[in-house]
Amino acid sequence: MDNRERASALIEELETLQPDLYGKDFLLTWENCFDNLKAVMLTAEILQCLHKEKKPWRIFDYGLAISIFRDNSTRTRFSFASAVNGLGLALAELDEVKSQIAHGETVRETANMISFLTEVIGIRDDMYPGEGHSYMLEVAQAVSDGYIQGVLAQRPTIVNLQCDLDHPTQVLSDLLKLKDYFGGWENLKGKKLAMSWAYSPSYGKPLSVPQGVINLMTRFGMNVVLAHPEGYNLLPETLKSAAFFAQESGGSFAQTHYMEEAFKDADVVYPKSWAPLAVMQERTELLRIGNKQGLQELEQLCLANNERFIDWECDEEMMKLTKNGEALYEHCLPADISDVSCERGEVSQSVFERYRYHTYQEAGYKPFVIAAMILNSKVQNPVAKLKSFL
Predict the structure, then answer these.
(1) Which of 321, 334, 350, 382: disulfide with 263, CB 3.0–4.6 Å?
(2) Does pTM surpass 0.85?
(3) Is residue 102 predicted with pLDDT exceeding 80?
(4) 303: containing domain
């Protein structure tokens, strides 16, 4: 099947769904119905097929896309730029230091001032528990008010490029890689996925990726095991929702404090470092009051605590525990690679090299996932629009 034929088949599958994405923001995967998630991923696959055939998929003649990155980013930053360019929008990045935000301009005012010709606002705000998702909701409310009051001719769609709770564009890309690797949605049911904490010589990494993974993969019938040392808990509400989704889909969700237990007979492993929730909450408060000495002391304590679990590494011995020793390795990147980017890290050099291009393919879905979120929010009949691109 060539790319055009595959796109046609995917459009036929998309026609069977009843998504509710038009005019909506995309903020959290677990707040979206099953058809919404499948519609975004099918649309992403269709756009990827069109791209491979060098067929354009513009839906805008003009307009802006605004990105707001409150944390460092490579893959997501350039994926957002690629997505909006493909849809026909120019990109502008809001620099909070160089804008009037530095002089005290409010979120409400800024959101409207950047949105006169803006169709989409992509936001990354992932470092502080209780802050990132709330900020996105504040921006969303501000542009809604501006649109209702006639200040804005159109309401920009808000896309979550990672918050403190979830990383939707990443975990949907992860899932698309799994769909491709195992040959379809139906083949994911019953597969075991180990979402495991792994050692890193840095601290303060967000919880949003593991929280997103456990809440998405359980919805597709996978048997998800979350592994982490004691004290590295995720948000309780995300654990509760993951258990609910597993029960609903016929999958399972379990937790352990042993990496080996999670890896045993796993079909997929996702070793990724994150900071203890309590540390992230304390860090947020220290930043709020500007306590630099307190932040330095907290960092040293956290790094010392991480070193207690330096053996939590995805190495060849750990991979031998997986099903036939051949589990798929996934990672959101960049991975902390032992003897490459650090002395000891999340994954050994040999394991990462074996799966390097799998992780690149995983990341390669992200521009199309972002574009799919925007297209489904802005186009009332996505099926007809996608057919017109063929």
Answers:
(1) 321
(2) yes
(3) no
(4) 170-364
